[in-house]
Specification:
single chain, 5 helices, 28 strands, 5% helix
């Protein structure tokens, strides 16, 4: 690492690191990864043309930052994935016209000696500012990250290999967006307070996929065995692991049956749909993530309110299985169901879709995943020092806290924050994950 700073105005930093794992992840000739980075900053507020003409009570900091760097990832690799272990005497074989069977061995996966590090290059440009004697602070960043040699698991075509999956470096992904922080802190008499917020936008796209692969398919319904036809997909020109499902159009007013849009844009019945009618219907990745924090203190009392939220993401609910219809579903479908008296309903007659897998594998099961959650409201009181000193206690604070008590969302499931499976190719599927618990906490902190 090399750092250089001059006159509190200019600074430059260069870093270089090299990493290598043992050969359980990559072959010996490819196990090393080399990752440089460079950053530079210019504190314009320390220049004479700013310092001599702008009162520091108005503008006390103006700094420009830029950086570029590369890092790597091979966490998904293990168990010598570039090699093809042999399963010894695990199968019966027949040769030619000879009817006899012979016990033999076979490779358990397809070898890929060209496996290498997945690498990401990111460029950032930012501005930091402080105004009004430091009471108002702001920061704005733009980032652009390109990941190449992406490590993905594929199922080779039978003509090449007919036994399971293999891992390859298959494509490129771009992530870019803006990040912003804004805070205000001040005092009015005995009351001190601060309000701070932050937000981050994200545009995610697969920019290149291995030329022999049109699309990589994830697990149907996010988990194995859920019998839902919808699945996540990895495809050039789309968000990573987007939802691929049927496009629900609405309800036939006369019959209460569901209708769908096919590939040509026509309104059709469920029986007319084919797998080719599935399409990109949304992504589980939020386009906007944000947070808000409020702090207020008056004499010995203090109050903190903290909340976070997301927007621009979808949740695909797979709680219901059409192959085993005697199970629970969201109340939403029954509250909005078609009846002869309610022909303008948004959801069909439950009897007509109880065993219709295509309906439950359509956008009828997809919901807006946006939410804002107040993660914590904490009220505290610190006893006066003149009282605690008598007990040889430096400070004594009591507090009560409400955690995860308030959620604002249109999602009809249990909790939009936890309504997702864990892996990247299964993100956004609600399989009934346990919701975040509401907690009331009483406590005290003591300092000596």
């Amino acid at each position: 690492r090399v750092m250089y700073a001059y006159d509190n105005r200019y600074n430059v930093q260069f870093n270089f690191r090299a990493d290598a794992f043992d050969t359980s992840k990559l072959p010996a000739k490819k196990r090393w990864g080399h990752f440089p980075s460079v950053s530079a900053g210019w504190t314009a507020s320390n220049e004479s043309f700013v310092r001599d003409h702008i009162n520091p009570d108005v503008l006390s900091l103006l700094k420009f930052r830029a950086s570029w760097g590369r890092n790597g990832n091979i966490n998904v690799l293990s168990g010598y994935p570039y090699a093809a272990p042999i399963a010894y005497n695990q199968a019966w074989y027949q040769y030619g016209d000879n009817p006899d069977l012979f016990y033999g061995s076979y490779p358990t996966r397809m070898a890929n000696p060209d496996l290498r590090w997945e690498t990401s290059e990111q460029f950032d440009f930012g501005i930091d500012m402080r105004f009004l004697n430091g009471r108002l602070s702001a920061g704005l960043d733009y980032y652009n990250k390109n990941t190449k040699d992406l490590l993905v698991t594929i199922t080779p075509i039978p003509e090449v290999y007919a036994n399971g999956t293999t891992i390859i470096n298959a494509g490129k992904v771009n992530n870019r967006g803006f990040e912003m922080e804004l805070s205000w802190r001040d005092r009015i008499g005995d009351v001190s307070y601060s309000i701070s917020g932050n937000m981050s936008t994200l545009r995610n796209r697969v920019t290149m996929l291995y030329e022999d692969i049109d699309r990589i398919s994830g697990t149907e319904g996010g988990v194995s065995g859920c019998n839902n036809l919808a699945y996540s997909a990895f495809e050039q020109g789309h968000s990573i692991w987007y939802f691929r499902a049927y496009d629900y159009a609405g309800v036939d007013r006369e019959t209460g049956a569901p209708t769908f849009r096919n590939g040509a844009g026509e309104i059709v019945a469920s029986s007319e749909l084919t797998p080719d009618d599935m399409k990109d219907v949304g992504s589980s990745i939020p386009r906007l993530t944000y947070g808000l924090t409020l702090n207020v203190a008056w004499k010995g009392l203090d109050l903190t309110v903290f909340g976070t939220g997301v927007s621009g993401n979808k949740i695909f609910n797979v709680l219901y299985r059409a192959d085993t219809p005697m199970r629970n579903s969201l109340k939403y479908y029954y509250e909005n169901a078609w009846t002869p008296e309610n022909r303008g309903a948004s959801m069909p007659d439950p009897q007509q879709v109880a065993t219709d897998r295509k309906f439950w594998s359509s956008t009828a099961s997809m919901f807006n995943g946006a939410y804002f959650k107040i993660k914590q409201i904490q009220l505290g009181y610190t006893l006066p020092a003149k009282l605690t000193r008598k007990a040889y206690v430096k400070n004594l604070r009591f507090f009560v806290s409400l955690d995860d008590f308030f959620t604002f969302s249109s999602y009809p499931g249990m909790d939009p924050e936890t309504a997702t499976t864990s892996s990247s190719s299964s993100a956004g599927y609600d399989i009934g994950s346990y919701p975040t618990m509401k907690k009331v906490t009483f406590g005290a902190t003591i300092g000596f």
